[in-house]
Amino acid sequence: MTEPESFRPEPAQILLVEDNPGDVRLTKEAFKQGRIENDLHTVSDGTQALDFLEQRGEYADAPRPDLILLDLNLPRTDGEEVLEQLKGDPDLRSIPVIVLTSSRAEEDVVRSYELHANAYLTKPVDPDEFIETVRAFEKFWFSVVRLPPEGSR
Which residues contact 28 (CB under 8 A, 6 or more apart)? Predict the structure, then answer.
């Protein structure tokens, strides 16, 4: 007997790495409107993201994210460096990373995929389109894609 594909015993743990408070608010709104039960954790720079992922300092009890939404243009440690360190760590590399950024530069797209990003989304300028993009991504990643079970990571 198989479980329904939409079955998920616990809320999805999502890490949002975003320094723009407006984009954080819109992302939270999109997830609130979505149908997927989730815990959205936010950090505002790359250094905090790495601390969260490595469970250092104030993030000692942070959960392992099921998915990471990563902006590229971040203070302190930029998104590219976070992606490089994350995908270079055998304990963390299986976590899917979706680059969600305002950059439309082809070199950013290419570099993100070279660093093993799982997807690259350009943030729409219009707030309603932004929310719709996040909701579509949420539906895809948590209703269609099969993520590795906790024990195999």
Answer: 40, 42
Can you tell me the mean pLDDT for 93-115?
A: 93
Per-position DSSP letters for 28-85, written without gaps between them: HHHHHHSSS-EEEEEESSHHHHHHHHHT-GGGTTPPPPSEEEE-SS-SSS-HHHHHHH
Output the pTM of the full model: 0.86
> 7-11, 61-65, 113-117, 141-145: which has the minimum mean pLDDT?
7-11
Give every CB contact of residue 146 below 8 A, 6+ residues apart in sequence.
5
Which residues, in sequence order, are bridge partners of residue 121? 100
The answer to whether 99 touches 79, Cβ cutoff 8 Å, is yes
